[in-house]
Structure formats: C-alpha cells, structure tokens
Write a structure and sequence with these properties.
The complex is a heterodimer.
Chain A: E1 5-8, H1 16-27, E2 33-38, H2 43-54, E3 57-64, E4 67-73
Parallel strand pairs in A: 1-2
Antiparallel strand pairs in A: 2-4, 3-4
Chain B: E1 6-11, H1 16-31, E2 35-40, H2 60-68, H3 86-97, H4 103-112, E3 116-120, H5 121-127, E4 140-142, H6 144-152, E5 156-159
Helix pairs in contact in B: 1-4
The chains are: A alpha+beta, B alpha/beta.
Chain lengths: ~80, ~160
C-alpha cells in the first residue's frame, strides 16, 4: 500500500503514537493516506478505535517482525 | 458539525503514577476530538503547582502543610514503592528507557490538544494556597457546581 506520508513511532508507547498521528493528520488533506509505524502492540486495537472516534478510515494494519504498519486515510 | 463530545476527569490524587494515567486519558479524549476538562482537587492540586519558588500561606499549620506538601509536577511521588524517593527515581529511569514522557511533558501535550485545567477553590482555601502557586496553564478556579455542569454534559466522567 502506498502512503502520502510516513510517521515513525517505533519505540513509543500509548498515547504517543496517537498524539503524533493526530498532529500529522491536521497537516494532511482529505483523501491522503498516512502510514504509521509502531512496535506497541496496542496500536492494533487503538488505531481502528481512534479512527472510529475521529471519523478517519483505518485501511489496513500489517505486521512484520514486531512492527505494525497502520494505513490511515484522512476523511471528512 | 454537532457539538463536541465531552469528558471530565477529577484529579484528586497527587501522585506521579495517577497523574500519568489521568493525563494519558485526557490526551486520548482530546486527540479523539473530545472537549476534555480536568478538575484538580485536594492532593491533585500538587500536579498543577509551579515547580519553582515557595508556596506562600498564612498561619503556622498551613505553612507547615505547604512545606511538607510542596507539590509541582516534577516532585510527585509514586503511590507505591516510593521508598524515600528511590522508587520515583527508578520509575523515571524506566520511563526514560522506553521514551515515555513524564508528567510535565504529558501535561504540555494535553494543553496542545486543548484540555482545560480547573483548580478547586475549596481545597485551595482549606490548604491556604493562592492562585500564584499554580502554573499559568490553569484555565480557571471553580467549585462543585462548575464540575457538575460539565459532568452532566459529558459522556465520560472519571475520578483519579
């Protein structure tokens, strides 16, 4: 999957990946996709729930060697 | 867009671990688009006291209380394993090892996302703490009616 921007949150714990995501999303335009890298397993549940709360779309979360890649599309 | 959803957190405790939990929750709410208000009362006032300078108060008992209960985000003890400060030092080290922010940093993030800080005037009166003792990030000074007015409109109300 292709993203417009990537955010490296490896090594950070909740709530920081969400904080960085929220900051970055303010800069993106509607329809753009942000890729978030995180090794905090909580992100698997947190990112879809954060997207649900904020009206953004969590497209997919992939896992590779303990690092999660979440793709979030800015909506609305 | 409809009115923002609201959330309130009463911060009654003045300990580092509890403050971390409170700010974590506040930040979660604020970054999810909620309007979050934190009410600091009793020992919780220690979280929003300035780190520098002394706390001015009148009368020997209040002076003693404010000397022993100095507060300030940098000085909050752990609620468990305080061990005369050794536990606090260890916990701060563990947090630093995994890049976890301290109370002050989380407080700044909360402010960045618009979390409101309210200090309880009753506790201030009992303990003899004036407005000058608090950090400038405190938005207002109020009592129970203000808290309840906010809490009634909120979906999430927590007590830490």
């Amino acid at each position: 999957m292709k993203a417009d921007e990537t955010l490296d949150c490896v090594g950070l714990y909740c709530p920081m990946p969400i904080v960085h995501t929220a900051r970055k999303m303010k800069e993106l335009k509607t329809g753009q996709v942000l890729e978030i890298l995180s090794d905090d397993e909580g992100i698997k549940e947190d990112m879809p729930n954060w997207c649900k709360a904020t009206g953004n779309e969590c497209l997919v979360i992939q896992e590779e060697k303990g690092v999660y890649r979440a793709f979030v599309k800015k909506s609305g | 867009m409809a009115d923002k959803e609201k959330m309130t957190i009463i911060v009654f405790s003045g300990e580092m671990d509890k403050a971390l939990a409170a700010f974590n929750l506040a930040i979660g709410g604020a970054t999810s688009g909620m309007e979050v208000t934190m009410f600091f009362t009793f020992w919780g006032l220690n979280v929003i006291k300035k780190n520098e300078g002394g706390i001015e108060s009148k009368g020997i008992m209040r002076k003693m209380l404010n000397f022993m209960n100095r507060g300030g985000a940098k000085r909050l003890p752990l609620s468990k394993f305080h061990m005369l400060g050794m536990g606090d030092w260890m916990m701060k080290k563990l947090m630093k090892d995994v890049n976890f922010p301290h109370v002050e940093e989380l407080m700044a993030v909360a402010k960045e996302f618009g979390v409101k800080f309210v200090a309880c005037t009753t506790s201030m009166g009992i303990m003899g703490i004036s407005k000058d003792a608090f950090i400038p990030e405190v938005d207002s000074f109020a009592g129970v009616a203000t808290y309840l007015a906010d809490a009634k409109e909120s979906k999430i109300n927590l007590f830490v």
